[in-house]
Amino acid sequence: MKRGIILLATAFALMLISGCATTTSTRDQGFVAEFRTGTQGLYLTFEQNMPPIKMYDDQPLEVVVRMENRGAYTLGGAGDKLYLSGFDPTILTGISTFGEQIPELEGKTQYNEGMLDVVSFTSTIRDLRGKGIDKYPTRLVATACYGYETVASANVCIDPDPFSLSVRQKPCTPVNVGLGSGQGAPISVSNVELEASRGRTRFRITINNVGGGDVFKPGAEYLTKCSPYAATGLSYNEYDYVRLNDVSVAGQSITSSCKPSSDIRLISGKATIYCELNNIPSGTAFATPIAVRLNYGYRNWISRDLTILASR
Q1: 42-147+300-309: which CATH topology?
Q2: pTM of the full predicted structure?
Q3: Is cis: bond before 260, omega within 30 of 0?
Q4: Separation between Cα atoms, residue 101 and residue 82, nearest integer Å
Q5: Which helix (H) or strand (E) covers residue 20, if one does?
Q6: Residues 212-234: tens digit of each pLDDT
Q7: What's the half-sphere exposure (Cβ side, CA atoms, 13 Å) at 45?
Q8: 43 within 8 A of 82, measured Cβ to Cβ
């Protein structure tokens, strides 16, 4: 009888241990789940048959654009707009040149895959016969202008005295670090190169426009200029720029050491930032995170061909 009780108690204890281990593993996996992946921000598609390929001028036109936030930054700020253009406003009437507000769309987290919603445009089609035409072919263009952010991080090795022979086996060695294809944003930090010397580590950070759209300076003024209806569009000194918000190593901001330290110009979709971590206390090498935060405006678009026929 005692043996049976002991066996039962042992089995129960093992079940508890197993259950605890499973719970801990699940919790840990959820905590470390990587969600800052991919090279897209806002992804646009036209809903099926909205608009159709062909229609008649006695029908109302409704254009519905599906919007998915496939990145890791929340969309829907005051200046984030979707515009519909590419048509003759004397034929398709009722579509505002001020655009439609992009709804709030939470980005990817360790708990979800990002949010989606739709934005619609409704137009009245003028009588084509009255204008002396039988059909009107056009290409509708949906253009999204929005602010976005890239947050990239990776572990790097900091060695206060990389040429010292006093320590034969160091915990780590300063080496270049690749950050993969993207961090859940259309602007990607692709690589961090290290150059270590006594008391100082230099960083060469490479960023790329990988989203397939246009990047420009962040801010309400530039979002307005992004519109296809803007009287004055984005200028050469506003287009192809990313703003460096922060670079930190071991919890210490080194942004003031970076060159450029604010607005960064991309050439052929690519730019390099040079930063330094100085006055590193003497001691052994150690691994620590480097974090890079970038802000910018972004524009991407889709198009759909449409032919409108005279109904009579």
Answers
A1: Immunoglobulin-like (2.60.40)
A2: 0.84
A3: yes
A4: 6
A5: helix 2-32
A6: 999 999 999 999 999 999 999 99
A7: 8
A8: no
